[in-house]
Specification:
Layout lengths: L2 E12 L2 E7 L2 E3 L3 E5 L6 H8 L7 E6 L2 E2 L4 H5 L2 E4 L11 H11 L4 H14 L15 H13 L5 E5 L7 H16 L3 E5 L3 H7 L2 E6 L2 E7 H5 L4 H9 L10 H4 L3
Parallel strand pairs: 4-9, 4-10, 7-8, 8-9
Antiparallel strand pairs: 1-2, 1-3, 1-5, 5-6, 10-11
Helix pairs in contact: 3-4, 3-5, 5-6
């Protein structure tokens, strides 16, 4: 099997707290992999380790055939990242930001300009002109961050909650772009709490619970006829002992 991402006992400790515990991911090339888990399960920490933004406390990771510990720069040349907190340079315009990112990846100037035009048009940002990023809405920021992650034509794209806080129009734009990326043979690694979108887009799913991988496989093999929501709740097993209602709502008035 040709894997785009493999991890072997990947672990991350913050003092006495183990956020990620012996993770063993296997993400096939060309797949759309949804990485799911409850809040605080270790999803964002995992992405930070896989993209080289954070070192691990143990274990190892192979990304695009390279060892993350030995060839981090080579890996970073071929991946795109949309982090949850975005980290955009807010005192630039959308065009200035994309040109800057393209040059950081050593994309030829003419190619950067050509791709800027296409990306801005595709994301509906062509008419932003001299408007600075700090004035952008959440949806506009998400689309700009995705455009920046794509400008160097990556083989692997990491997306941490790209659909959070955006409207239906921005969501549809992003979904359409992601489907194009998969069709051309690239790999996407996505975290999202919106299970309907994951179920619609993803071919494979991994579920993490309290830092440990609880399930992994194709969406079809994991669901076995159930909805992704039912599969997720059954796998993480959280909330099964929680009250199902509020006492005062049950009172008769």
């Amino acid at each position: 099997m040709d894997y785009c991402i493999e991890t072997f006992g990947l672990t991350k400790d913050f003092g006495a707290f183990r956020a990620v515990d012996g993770l063993g991911l296997q993400v096939e090339r060309g797949s759309f992999y949804g990485f799911l888990g409850p809040n605080g399960a270790g999803k964002s920490t995992t992405i930070k380790m896989l993209t080289g933004l954070m070192g691990s406390s143990g274990g190892s990771a192979r990304i695009l055939g390279h060892d993350m510990a030995k060839a981090p720069l080579e890996i970073k040349k071929h991946i795109g990242v949309v982090p949850e907190d975005l980290c955009l340079f807010e005192n630039l315009t959308a065009r200035e930001y994309l040109v800057f990112i393209g040059r950081m990846y050593l994309v030829a100037p003419k190619l950067v300009n050509d791709r800027c035009e296409e990306l801005l048009a595709l994301m509906g940002l062509s008419d932003t002109g001299k408007t600075l990023v700090l004035e952008f809405s959440t949806g506009m920021r998400k689309k700009l961050a995705l455009a920046a992650a794509l400008i160097h034509d990556p083989d692997l794209l990491f997306l941490d909650e790209p659909f959070e806080g955006i409207d239906a129009i921005a969501s549809r734009t992003i979904r359409n772009v992601l489907e194009q990326i998969i069709h051309r043979g690239s790999t996407i690694f996505l975290t999202s709490h919106i299970l309907e979108i994951v179920e619609r887009l993803c071919t494979h799913v991994g579920i993490i619970r309290q830092g440990k991988l609880a399930a992994q496989g194709s969406l079809e093999s994991l669901s076995q006829g159930s909805s992704l929501e039912e599969t997720f709740i059954r796998t993480v097993g959280e909330g099964e002992h929680a009250p199902v209602s509020l006492s005062w709502l049950e009172a008769n008035h």
